[in-house]
Amino acid sequence: MPLPKPPTQKASLLGPRDFEAQAAPRALKRGTATTDEASAPPALLDPAPLAADADLGARPPRAPSRSPRSRSAARPEGLDPAPTVPPQAVPAPVHAGNPAIETPPRTAVREQRPATEPARARPRRLAGGPAKLFVLDTNVLMHDPTSLFRFEEHDILLPMITLEELDGHKKGMSEVSRNVRQVSRELDALVAAMGHGAFDSAAGIPLAKTGHREAGGKLFFQTKLLEVKLPQGLPQGKADNQILGVVQHLVEAHPTREVVLVSKDINMRVKARALGLAAEDYTNDKTLEDGDLLYTGVLALPADFWDRHGKTMESWQQGGATYYRIAGPMVPVLLVNQFVYLETPGAAPLYAKVTEITGKTAVLRTLKDYTHAKNSVWGVTARNREQNFALNLLMDPDCDFITLAGTAGTGKTLMTLAAGLSQVLDERRYSEIIVTRVTVPLGEDIGFLPGTEEEKMGPWMGALDDNLEFLARNDSGAGEWGRAATNDLVRSKIKVKSLNFMRGRTFMNKFLLIDEAQNLTPKQMKALITRAGPGTKIVCLGNLAQIDTPYLTEGSSGLTYVVDRFKGWPHSGHVTLARGERSRLADFASDVL
């Protein structure tokens, strides 16, 4: 179809005859026409794209439904029809360099686009929205004095009753009192960093003022007396209820901001949720969310282990042990001092320990069999696979830090005492054994205990006496006088110490046994382990199912903390003992009770 002649004048219009010769315009899709194009005068639209569109169309030209006269009669005289063309149908102007023809600006449609579009406004609101406001309960600060700096970019508010409770617990030598004093020093440093003048309480104090760059929020204090109506069943004078009143006031005063109460008290959180307030536990101190994810120190090899790793394997013998250098898909999941085993029917079992990991290769060393009577340690032999692994760790001079976890009756204390006595009395590797534990009672406290430090610790060391009595009975050929002499010698090499007097000490060439380590906090565990001097071995024993310390859980216990932090270190090891060997009654009670 021939094209019409190009216009000779600027902004000239097509005539009716030329318009009838073109193909019918394409039907517009619903919603594509804009108000700018519909209301624009015809002189602003370029006629050249219309001709190009007619030439490119594959459909034959259709006859117009009504005559040009009827269409022109509905319009004012002097205006020719100009069809509305969708923006996506307009090609690039081929005559952009012709000064006689003006191209309509393409930005006209964009400039009048609505400013608020849901697809773009939602991420902007999330990125630039207000940070959360956390209201801290007193027990959170008592539990973790650095909790002020653990909330990233979010803000923190401290009610005045929280500061009052901190002031009431600052005196004393307990761990709680030391934490309170540390919190007071942190708060004093933050206030002092704002200058000598009174700071603006409404603007808050940046938590990063004292060098804690991980804290990007601000600290606020309650400075006004709030009149909040709580349910009648809640007494207004109680500290917990006053904190709940502060949270409720903040929720009403800041409806667009998320206000959350953080408390270690379960009842406090229950009351807050009953009132419709958001409440959470303080979880930053938890090493693991689930106790089942704790590193066990033992890994079962798959049945096709030798098929997948035996082609490039190297093996040699040294010092009575066999070494295997392997390379394969199992190497990335192995850790140094981790125990591996492979038990297949009809084949000799493999019990080994990972001694070295270099790049994509790992070295396995077979273990000493402590299940045999010839390798017994002070008359104690391993009764299961995990006990054999534990004795290999306890008797290894290269392991300076060992953790043993397991339920009651798995033999943790007995094996540790036997290994300690063997290395103190027989091998002369250590000078003496130091035993300590946390003095947290199972029931009601019996009150003041008279005597020296060891006499005061005597009631807490019943497990030590029971195991020493069992070890002394194994020496049946010595007679009664011989067993008495041995018992005196053993007790002269064992010292019982209290945790309260450990700070500042240094143990050199000692075998340190920490019993009931699950009741220690991570800070207390750090204070104990850093007491170790040259030639000292530390063994931590504990059962994560028997935590008696308030506000401690399996995830936040000091035992869980050190197991997770020390895994993979070449001079440490961990074993989780799975099967009890105390008696069939104790084993059954552990399973069903």
Automatic annotation (TrEMBL):
Residue ranges, annotated region (Disordered): 1-124
Biased segments, Low complexity type: 40-76
Pfam families tied to this protein: PhoH, PIN_4
GO cellular component: cytosol
SUPFAM superfamilies: P-loop containing nucleoside triphosphate hydrolases (SSF52540), PIN domain-like (SSF88723)
Segments forming domain PIN: 132-270
Keyword ATP-binding: yes
GO molecular function: ATP binding
Keyword Metal-binding: no
InterPro entries: P-loop_NTPase, PhoH, PhoH2-like, PIN-like_dom_sf, PIN_dom
Keyword vocabulary terms for this entry: ATP-binding, Nucleotide-binding
Family per record: Belongs to the PhoH family. In the N-terminal section; belongs to the PINc/VapC protein family.
Record-given protein name: PhoH family protein
Organism: Aquariibacter albus
Lineage of the species this protein comes from: Bacteria, Pseudomonadati, Pseudomonadota, Betaproteobacteria, Burkholderiales
